[in-house]
Specification:
The chain is an alpha+beta fold and 570 residues long. 26% of the residues lie in helices and 37% in strands.
Length: 570
């Protein structure tokens, strides 16, 4: 009896140790959700180990180097059956199949000391397996605007995602082209379509692709990863539904990107159509010297981004100064085409009266439809500029006789002669009186000068100097108030009265002093005044400081010239 009990105990002990040993042995099972797989198609690899391990215990990138890993997630599960507790950890890896058809092998997955089974995958050619691809719960069709484009030429790719059930969640990865800019164009469109009697939910998305290098390139299509909703027939509640993970990839497309012509120089602008226009503000208003003419130039191009548009330049030309503002950009769509526009406003200030022409602005571009260079330009503008009304009016000049030897004399009448005689008598007495007063004044002045000869006195009774001083005071006042328009007028008036400059343009004052800080201040106030963006001028104090420094420098230079000893003294 004792021996039987001992045998039963020993047998139970052996079974217990065997179960404990088998429970400690980790097992790994690897499986894929589809096989064969179409080239570049996403698929799911599931790796399950009968143990509770952390996510860091397995490095997917290290063991799956030959595949493109889209994402990795993990899940844990614990179950108790007949008192036995079982723990499993699953790694779900979304991979993309290689782009080359053939047989590929997923090597055994190793976690710790345990290894899984290897998996052989059959990769099918995508071009020959379109029908099979479209039997999937999700597939993508794409269409290209052109398979032959120029470098930096923008083209469209339209992607249509077909789902055999309602979308629960998902992510559509943009197409990929080496060294290219890919952006979404417009909003997604949703519709439904019947294919071979089967209803599909369709999501359409458009991409704008701009290649940055030339050559024969492969465009990888969009990739979709998500879940669709399916009704659960096993549920007693018909409203309960389950989700099913799905993935899809578009068939890759080969495109040819042509380089820019070898003889091309300057800014590269490939487009279907480019136009340049100019618009003048208040075209009916007469133009005077010093009065700004506001022009807005616009360059419009189809099939390019605003960043590709060239800079519009209008340099100073004879008889005028040019002040450009900051450019403005705009982009819109029309008939499914992208239209980009760059606007440049400039203020042109004529410096002299007469007729002058504002030259055209040209933009060279490459016509992608014709495959040749073209030139677009704005219209030149011819204007008649009248003298400034603010300038001092010239003294009237008597008409010149027809012949230098001919003298025109009006014959006086008797009444006129009598008036002349009376006036001559009056003028004689007045002349005597003024002469006496002048002699008295001269004597007094001589007496005063003799007494003050030891003290030189500066006389500042000149009317022009007094007027210039008043103008200078007014200029300081409006400048310190940062009133740009009033300061401009005050500067012109002061310069005319102080230096007898015509002052059709403030740059005459800058040229008169040839002082760099003053030139910068004059340029700044002009830009603020003629800026359509409403720039605020706050440099009044700095302008006065620059004017004082310029006058001081001019006096110092003049003094040095006056006191400079002769080069060859006698």
């Amino acid at each position: 009896m004792v021996n039987n009990v001992l045998k039963v105990f020993l047998i139970s002990l052996v079974f217990w140790f065997s179960a404990a040993a088998s429970a400690q042995e980790a097992e790994i099972v690897a499986s894929v959700d589809k096989n064969p797989i179409i080239q570049s198609e996403p698929f799911t690899l599931t790796v399950t180990i009968n143990d509770d391990i952390s996510e860091s215990a397995w490095d997917a990138e290290q063991q799956l180097r030959d595949f493109r890993i889209l994402n990795v997630r993990s899940s844990r599960r614990t179950s108790v059956i007949n008192g036995v507790t079982t723990r499993t950890t699953s790694f779900i890896v979304n991979l993309q199949a290689p782009a080359t058809p053939g047989i590929v092998r997923i090597p055994p997955i190793q976690i710790g000391s345990a290894r899984s089974n290897a998996i052989e995958l059959t990769i099918l050619d995508a071009a020959a397996s379109v029908d099979e691809l479209e039997q999937r719960p999700a597939f993508i069709r794409t269409s290209l605007e052109s398979k032959r484009v120029y470098v930096q030429q923008q083209f469209k790719l339209v992607s249509r995602l077909y789902l055999s059930a309602n979308l629960h969640s998902g992510n559509l990865i943009a197409p990929n082209l080496p060294e290219a800019e890919v952006v979404q164009f417009g909003k997604d469109e949703e519709s439904y379509e019947i294919i071979n009697g089967k209803r599909y939910q369709v999501f359409q998305r458009t991409y704008l692709i701009t290649p940055q290098r030339s050559g024969d390139l492969k465009l990888e299509g969009p990739v979709f990863e998500g879940q669709i909703t399916r009704d659960s027939s096993r549920s007693v509640f018909s409203s309960i539904a389950t989700t099913q993970p799905v993935s899809a990839v578009a068939v890759p497309t080969s495109i040819t990107v042509l380089p820019r012509p070898a003889d091309w120089t300057g800014h590269w602008l490939p487009s279907e159509l480019v136009s340049v226009s100019v618009e003048r503000a208040n075209p009916e208003q007469p133009i005077e010297v010093g009065q700004p003419i506001t022009l807005t130039y616009r360059v419009t191009a189809i099939g390019v981004s605003t960043e590709q548009l060239p800079t519009l330049t209008l340099d100073d030309f004879d008889g005028a100064s040019v002040y450009p503002e900051s450019p403005e950009f705009a982009s819109t769509t029309r008939n499914g085409r992208v239209i980009a526009q760059r606007s440049q406003t400039v203020a042109v200030i004529p410096r002299q009266a007469g007729k002058f022409t504002i030259p055209e602005v040209q933009v060279e571009w490459f016509n992608t439809r014709l495959g040749q260079a073209q030139l677009s330009s704005s219209e030149p503008i011819t204007l008649e500029v009248s003298p400034s009304s603010q300038a001092a009016a010239p003294a009237p000049v008597a008409d010149k006789p027809a012949n230098e030897n001919d003298v025109v004399v009006d014959e006086p009448t008797q009444q006129t002669k009598a008036q002349y005689q009376s006036n001559n008598t009056l003028y004689f007495y007045l002349a005597v009186i003024f002469a006496a007063l002048w002699v008295i004044t001269l004597s007094l002045w001589a007496w005063w000068w003799l007494r003050r000869s030891a003290k030189p006195v500066a006389i500042n009774d000149n009317k022009e100097q007094n007027t210039a001083a008043a103008s200078w005071s007014h200029l300081q006042k409006v400048a310190l108030e940062n009133d740009a328009n009033a300061t401009d007028l005050a500067l012109r008036k002061w310069a005319r009265e102080k230096f007898q400059l015509p002052m059709f343009d403030l740059f005459e004052l800058a040229q008169h002093f040839n002082h760099q800080p003053l030139s910068s201040q004059i340029d700044h106030i002009q830009r603020c005044r003629f800026s359509g963006a409403g720039a605020t001028w706050l440099e009044g104090k700095a302008l006065i400081r620059a004017l004082k420094a310029a006058q001081k420098q001019r006096k110092s230079t003049k003094s040095k010239k006056d006191t400079l000893s002769p080069l060859y003294p006698s």
